[in-house]
């Protein structure tokens, strides 16, 4: 699979050689996680700080298609949703996109376009974002653990853990008895019969 990805990558670069070079990166995340889509440009001094945008399609010939966030280089000037954030140091050229609490619908191509002076000088990068459903893990013997912790900044400091264990029961398993004492032998037989 890596070989085919490299082949597509080189075909895209040769096809677009008459315009600005476009790089491509694949980012994989899970539903409910924050996903980081990297993008940087070089800032040697304050004059290098420039505007940029993120869009929801491949980079067009100018600007961003379906723009989701813009910056003038110093601060975010437009934001389609609070789920799209630039958490890096903008003035150092870190325009990495964070998709907060990702959904499957966030999968697709994202364009990072840094607007550099001159014709066809913009720095373009397309990123394929793949958001997968969270993996469900099972444990044996059927143990479920849940933790409840207070939110950061709240006054509650305690946390509690609840663990429940359900024994596996099969036709060949030995009879199981109730943990409470039986008042008579007939009660114990009824419990054993029910468990089988």
From TrEMBL:
Q: Which Gene3D superfamilies does the UniProt record give?
A: Immunoglobulins
Which keywords appear in this protein's UniProt record, sorted alphabetically?
Disulfide bond, Glycoprotein, Immunoglobulin domain, Membrane, Signal, Transmembrane, Transmembrane helix
What is its membrane topology? Single-pass type I membrane protein
Q: Which Pfam families match?
A: V-set (PF07686)
Q: Where is the composition biased (Low complexity)?
A: 154-183
Task: Write down the InterPro entries for this protein, in alphabetical order.
Answer: Ig-like_dom (IPR007110), Ig-like_dom_sf (IPR036179), Ig-like_fold (IPR013783), Ig_sub (IPR003599), Ig_V-set (IPR013106)
Its cellular-component GO annotations read: membrane
Which molecular function terms from Gene Ontology are attached?
A: phosphatidylserine binding
Domain (Ig-like): residue spans on this chain: 20-137
PROSITE patterns attached to this UniProt entry? IG_LIKE
**GO terms for biological process?**
apoptotic cell clearance; cytoskeletal rearrangement involved in phagocytosis, engulfment
Disordered, as annotated region: 136-186
Any idea where this protein resides? Answer: Membrane
Q: Could you tell me where the Polar residues compositional bias lies?
A: 136-153
Q: Which family does it belong to?
A: Belongs to the immunoglobulin superfamily. TIM family.
Q: What is this protein called?
A: HAVR1 protein
Q: What is the lineage of its organism?
A: Eukaryota, Metazoa, Chordata, Craniata, Vertebrata
Q: What gene name does this entry carry?
A: Havcr1
